Amino acid sequence: MSNILSLTTFLPLLGVLLLFFIPKENKAVLRGLTLAVTLVTFIVSLLILTGFKTNAEFQFVENVPWIAAGPFVMRYNIGVDGISLWLVILTTFIMPISVLSTWKAVEEKVKEYMICLLILETSLIGAFISIDMFLFYIYWELMLIPMYFMIGIWGGKNRLYATVKFFIYTMVGSLLMLVAFIYLYMLGTQAGVTDFSVLHFYNLKIDPAIQVWMFLAFALAFAIKVPMFPLHTWLPDAHTEAPTAGSVILAAIMLKMGTYGYVRFAMPLFPEAAHRFAPLLATLAVIGIIYAALVAMVQEDVKKLVAYSSVAHLGFVMLGLFAFNVNGMTGSMLQMLNHGISTGALFLIVGFIYERRHTRLITDFGGLAKQMPIFATMFLIVTLSSIGVPGTNGFAGEFLVLLGGYESELRWWTVVATSGVIFAAVYMLWMFQRVMFGELTNPKNQSLLDLDAREIAIMIPLIVLIFVMGVYPNPFIEKMDPAIKKLVAQIRPASMDVKKIDTTSPAAHGAIQSQSGLQAPAGYQGMSGMPGAEQPAGHSGTNGQMPAGHPGMSQDGQTSEPAINPHESK
Amino acid sequence: MDMISIPAINMTPILPEIFLSSLAMVLLLITVFSPGGSKSLLGNISFIGIAATAVLVGSGWGANISSFNGSVILDNFATFFKMVFLLSAGLSILISDKYMNREGCNHGELYPIILFTTVGMMLMASGTDLMVIFLGLEVMSVSLYVLAGFNRNNLKSNEAGLKYFLLGAFSTGFLLYGMALIYGATGTTRIAKIATIIGQMTLPSANIMLVAGMLLMFTGFAFKVAAAPFHMWTPDVYEGAPTPMTAFMSTGPKAAAFAASLRIFLIALPTLQAEWGQLLWVLAVLTMTVGNITALRQDNIKRMLAYSSIAHAGYCLVGFAAGNGTGTAGILFYMLSYAFMNIGAFAIIILVAKKGEPNGTVMDLAGFGFKHPILALAMTIFMFSLAGVPPTAGFIGKFYLFSGAIQKGYIWLAILGVLNSAASVYYYLRVIVYMYMKEPNEEFEWTVVTAPVALALLIAVAGTLIPGVVPSLLLELAQNAIKLI
């Protein structure tokens, strides 16, 4: 199966073709078929996972000519590495869940809705696996169209405003990025680059003065998508107005497109500029964490609260990325997955309750726990996961981000960001308390039914993952580890090496570890003596030294000792 | 006594023009002698004639034959543009019959005049002498004045015809005066010779007559492509003219003006590129911005598309300002794509409008999306393509146009271009918003798709989508077409 990636990408599109032939009155068939298509896509994508070899290289690569005219050569060049692997799986995993969540919520124009969902899936997967930058751009823009329709047609009261804002915001950023794309290519052709493959551009030595502008163009496009403060204003609108499945996909996958863009493009392509702007972007990330948490606290609408919590969570992801070290990056990648699962689950929960009561105002609820015990239990688990309580997935990621941040030059940023964890506990638990506990005063709530089998079936996989990733995140980290190490080596510009060694000296690093009394980082670093580790080691020869704080890098052979988990030491 | 020596004339380069003109005259005769006959038949004949001409033109691909003592040429550049004109004319003819019947102005002269316009445009693309280009332009323009005012019982249409005629005549004056001054400065009207003579000048940019001639020609062409600030006629003419003719006017003649000006400026005046490049830079920014900003405020959908067509001319001027291979090939590709998507959009507008209310507003589209899903899907594709969203031909075209500018080093021009493009998204999306996201006020029971319209839409959708996904072939053709200039 050499073209399994293409198969995964275009299976949903094939589903669209099938849907065209089904009469629109036949809603059950439409839903069932879409579910089947997304499930098959998920199963096929699992083959990618099982066939993935743990190293830093792109795998399942397909590279065939596509466009060649004038100065440009674009190729259909796709592949997955440790960074994109999980995001692809996350996408295929979330899609069947989103389809199931619309079973009752969408009664009108079911056919069109399902078509939108499937086109969205294709474009999301396509963007994650594109190695060719032009191909990435096509998917990146394409995904706007179905989401635009989903919010605009099936959204809430204020949907038109929200959807146009969403579209134009994203479009402005990505068009400026397009200019930088083209400019980068023109630079590349002078240096002998023959096509749009991002791998060629990694090796370009671009003048830092030019890097600044191109980085800004890329960073703006991705920052809008993430979204980073102060470009986040489209998100609460879009989330609040979108139908449940739209919110789930938006939060769980589409926002990751922004952070993924930083990891894949903005940072490794323009390392000097990335370092230069790290303090600025970290500041915005931290402001985002605190500001979004404060705003979330005063929200009256549950969905809006969850939307703002997204902004805060992605602030953590950004902070981890700009720590420029393995811990921070790993934490960010993990947190991207975690956020996909927890926030996706939160939006589903909000969807369940909205379908029953057609309101999302916190004041309309209270005491639901007595009426809906299963719902309450699941809601609690998801809430705790979103806060990052140890034992849930949120903890592992957030912890690594903070650890990485603390090890890096962003120490003080990290200290401030840590308070965001507390704020998160405050707004989430307070919301939970107001919705679920207290007296069941509102008579409309007294007749609420607990979750039905379909709804439980939707939630179970998410809940299982919350615990699995919380208790034993290593299988996830293991696959991404070599790619992350390679990336960290890539984004260390030669000029920064001397300075870096000082800040992450073994002594200082060890001290932090022993102070924290956690073996976790050491444990997971122990795993890094993998085949893929040779790759970054090779880089260190040309690029300067590796971060000194990662002893595992230099070890050879398999270190099969299982990593110890952060909270096992609790 | 010396005989006037007549050079051996190779008719091949103008064979398509001869064929099309003869066909037009035959059609005129048919109209005259059977005034009550079916006009649909005339439409069908002229469409078939255009298709045949397209085959004829297409068979000339790869040739490079100069004739009439170097005043016309058959090269890939001309062939590519002729295909654009024929496409534009063919699609417009397909969507004309229904509209003209509905508005009660289906006079038989319509089709011959469209064919004459096409002949004029084709001469503009293949002319290598300023006089031939001017003749072509006049044939085209005069026919267009008639087409704009073709609905003679409609005041707006009359106004459009008259306005277009007055301003068009005025601008033709500029163009002709410019050509005269160039002739004065160089002593020839042959494009290639002009280039040689200018090349021998020590400082051509100091030759006032030459520069003035260039500026006047520049103005004349700017008027024809509706570049700001010479665009004032466009909205009124486009709004008043019968919709199929608006579709025609906004695509074919615009492409013709680009064809002629590209040939003149790139072959005859490359030594002055520094000067006209700068001018075009300013003109492009102005045109894009004026077009887009004004379009934002339009409710009338024809006016909206008129302003949008100004903006699209602006995008092409970006490629023109760059003046390099990428930008120029971008113009060729874009003009072809624009013919597909813009005529497609006008075809839908014709279907949505009711009899007697040919000038619909965007609001009239409310709820159209779920009443006629396939038509609305087609309209959505056209709108996204006009907005330059992938995977459509509009995106690839813009990509090449802006790439040309970046390659030339005009980064700011590209940035202003994409910002304009982002602004334009708003008004194209507005159409989609009304189609899909507003409750319908109407049942649209009058929207009946006839076979020719269906064919036109099919061609337009295919021409918008396929080059968006696999643009290689068309881009290669465009690259080949500009090799010779």
Which key terms come to mind for this protein?
heterodimer, A: 570 residues, mainly alpha, two-stranded antiparallel ribbon, 24 helices, disordered C terminus, B: 485 residues
Layout of strands and helices, then pairs:
The complex is a heterodimer of chains A (570) and B (485).
Chain A: H1 4-20, H2 27-51, E1 59-69, E2 72-80, H3 82-105, H4 110-129, H5 133-142, H6 144-154, H7 159-190, H8 198-202, H9 208-225, H10 234-241, H11 244-269, H12 271-297, H13 302-321, H14 326-357, H15 368-371, H16 373-387, H17 393-407, H18 411-436, H19 453-471, H20 474-490, H21 497-503, H22 506-516, H23 520-526, H24 534-543
Antiparallel strand pairs in A: 1-2
Helix pairs in contact in A: 1-2, 1-4, 2-3, 2-4, 3-4, 3-11, 3-14, 3-20, 4-5, 4-6, 4-11, 5-7, 6-7, 7-9, 7-10, 9-11, 9-12, 10-11, 10-13, 11-12, 11-13, 11-14, 12-13, 12-18, 13-14, 13-17, 13-18, 14-16, 14-17, 14-19, 14-20, 16-18, 16-19, 17-18, 17-19, 20-24
Chain B: H1 15-33, H2 39-58, E1 65-67, E2 72-74, H3 76-102, H4 110-126, H5 130-148, H6 155-186, H7 191-200, H8 208-224, H9 233-240, H10 243-268, H11 273-296, H12 301-322, H13 325-352, H14 368-371, H15 373-387, H16 393-408, H17 411-437, H18 451-469, H19 472-482
Antiparallel strand pairs in B: 1-2
Structure write-up:
The complex is a heterodimer of chains A (570) and B (485). By secondary structure, chain A is mainly alpha-helical. The longest helix of chain A has 32 residues, at 159-190. Chain A has a domain at 272-496. Chain A starts with a helix and ends in a 27-residue tail after the last helix. Chain A is globular and about 70 Å long. Chain A has 24 helices and two strands. In chain A, helix 17 (393-407) runs parallel beside helix 19 (453-471) and helix 20 packs parallel to helix 24. The longest helix of chain B has 32 residues, at 155-186. Chain B has a two-stranded antiparallel ribbon. Chain B is globular. The mean pLDDT of chain B is 89. Chain B has 19 helices and two strands. The interface between A and B is large, with 34 and 37 residues.
